[in-house]
Amino acid sequence: MAALSDSAAVTTTSARRRRWLLKGEGWIIFQRKGESRYLLRYKVANKRKDHKVPRHVDTLAVARAYAEAKLPELLAHGGAPRLSVPLDKPKGLTVREVAQEVRWGSAAKGGWLALRCDQRDRDRLAASTVAADVSNFNAHVLPALGALAVADVDVPRLREFVRGLERKPLAPYTIRNVMASVRTFFDDVKADQIVPLGTNPARDREVVRLIPRGESRAQRRGLKVVIEKAHAEKLLTHPTVPEIARLRYLLGFLTGARDGELAGLTWADVRLDADVPYVAIRKAFALVQKPTRPGETKSTGRTKTRSSNRDVPLHRLCVSALRAWKAKGWVERVGWSPRPNDPVLPSEDGSHSRPDSAANIRSDLRAVGLPDSVGGLNITFHATRATFITWLGQQEVAEAVVQRLVGQTSSSVMAKHYMDIPLERLHRAVEKLSLNLEPGRVIAMPLRVVGGEDVSPTSTVPTTSAGPARRLRRA
Predict the structure, then answer these.
(1) How far apart are CA 273 and CA 282, in angstroms?
(2) What tens digit of pLDDT does each residue of 108-142 get?
(3) Which of 26, 182, 277, 463 has the fewest beta carbons under 10 Å from its own?
(4) Which secondary-structure segment (H or E) carries 68?
């Protein structure tokens, strides 16, 4: 039987009409007539055996790499694949090829990273999870491990990889996130048999024990990055802070919502006229970099966790501010009256907006004469969430109520699966918080509105053909 090139194919006539495609040392790749799936033929103890190649192997180049990698395992175990037995590491597909090039599952091209993006698009993965995987691979995994064959990435190499991340240096949480992406990558490679693996090296206990504990710099130093109430009041009322930024901060301080959750809110999610006014958080707006396209794309997808899907009652200050923003500020910014599917915090063209809120809040704090750090640690927008939780704790609100408000999973089985906390009780907890906003205006509204008097949402702002009546300084 003559050896053939990847691009050549010779059809032989036999009783079963097989089509021989590739030949290597001790193996042949062929297809039966009328079937698209490849078969790998080899011999064990002078007995001919056929092994079905996984369906995702759909090119001869990948089939050759699969055959060369799989054959040692088949020969070692008499033709019966036993993936639980450690294998000799044959040369084959590299980490970069599997991550970025090999066709995988329902993704047309682009490898494992494209598969993750496809799972996100079909709402099976949160956008933040996919964004972390793409970022971790592009920034850390591929530069260090991309040229290695997947089967050659063993425990010693991964231990050295972890040490390299520490030397950069990366924060412990970042290292844990990177290794979580690596662990998932090898789980999928092993489960789908993209490359035959005996075990997932990223799950080896010698690798796991080298990964640092999940502690932020604030936790290691015993600090809480929380904004003082007087500082929050000054930030919310100072005229130099843009109106849309003041509303974002107010909602952060009094709902505990994450930045992406606020960016994903539409007016259909805001129930200002309900018996208990609330916002329905069911999605988040994230920045995701796809591996198949350069640059940054924006995506509205699932919330960070399932428990993040929740109804959050609105504080009376939020209700007044949202009514005023909907009636005037939003119209001035965009140029038309808001529709149900329009975002609450839009860009100037009316689309969803995800600004750099971490940099913006520090800039605004400095602009009003306040510190932008706590104990040497930068304040980020997440500090509004931590501040909300801290204020609730100071009011002795029950932990189960706080967890429900911020969308955290309770460690209690009863609270997680059986306890239902009514919206009215959550609202009473939120209303225990107080802010003195009399010195200024939150959303370009008169002091009577800040004091609790409602504003009609029907007023409009005239615009010109050039666009909105007024532009603010950033999205």
Answers:
(1) 19
(2) 456 888 888 777 666 667 777 888 898 899 999 99
(3) 26
(4) helix 60-76
